[in-house]
Amino acid sequence: MLLLGTVTSAELIAPDLTPDRLLLRLFHEEGVRVFTPLELSFACRCSRTRVETMLRRFPPEDFEDMKQADGGLVVTCEFCNERYGFNDAELAQLQPRLRH
Ligand SMILES: [Zn+2]
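That is the input. Now the predicted structure with zinc ion docked in place:
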């Protein structure tokens, strides 16, 4: 971190000083290894099947608080905001002991 503190603003924005060269300039004595950059992309592993598996694990009594006025329920993935809706009949298949 001490070495990193010696970098000037001019060096950070110098067009001819690539990040790799800056790293080598600062840390050549430590040994620098730069990995191939990976492109990042957002992806969520949620699926309707996963949500169904999760809903099957709930005790039937817990559904009373989760169900909406029409008897269905909506599960929203907190990672990607995808919404999975289940109507009364679909819930009955997932939870045969559920009261209707
Ligand atoms: Zn998701």
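DSSP finds five helices and two strands in the chain.
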